Amino acid sequence: MALIRSEVRRLHLFELECVQHRQPGQEWVPHWHTEWSFGAVIEGECRCSINGQPRRIARGDLIAIAPNTVHAGMVGGGALSRDVLVVMFYVPEAWLRHEGLPSPAACATVALPDLAARAGAVCTAAQARKWLRLALPALHAAAHQAHTENAGPLPTSAEQKLLKRLGAAAADGQLRVPELAARCGVSRERLHRVVKRWIGLSPSEYLRTARLHHAKSLLAATGSPAQAAFECGFSDQAHFTRWFRKAFGYTPGDWLRAAPDSAPGSAPDAA
Fold it and tell me: What residue ranges define each of the domains in the chain, with the CATH number in brackets?
């Protein structure tokens, strides 16, 4: 079976990423992004889980997913067509501040078919900026309404402290679950309960995703998938590449080749 991969572009806009997903049946394991995720469903639909809540993102919908929000999903053809085109923009908080745009209060969707269709033509940073400045006000309004209507319980102060320690400890790409629990000062059972409730992952799944994000930073610094795999504790480069693709939709090599300043003919390690 051929590998299902997405097209990734890295634009000169605070390291903005634009990814186009075109393969029916493509799935993502539970993961998160450190940036805001803004997207549009142009063809087909996306069935996903965001913080454990199932959602169906239909053709013509825009979506906003907050940073560090665990989500998973699958794209497929809709009722009228088997074609799929989902465009996602991964936008750092710094860009929103730079542009004077408020962050949405929560994850949200809104139906704007004309604006969704325009996302498919975005190829440059200037086009991405223009599209995002049109999309964000509508997503902000929808997120504010969703946040008001669906406000739920929050972690206790002790749980918040544990989650903060968790993020700091997981920055070490070589940690295992027992070591993570020890660094957080809790039992493995307590760690599992808190992480599963408030993040939606088991501690081992959380660590794997944290290692993938750390590996992405190493890729940017070194340009070597093999070195990133080794330093982040993956058994080999092939194992690293499989999990990277399952989380992000493309391989480490795809991501490196998408760098805006890549020299023609330069090639990273095979991945």
Answer: 7-149 (2.60.120.10), 157-257 (1.10.10.60)
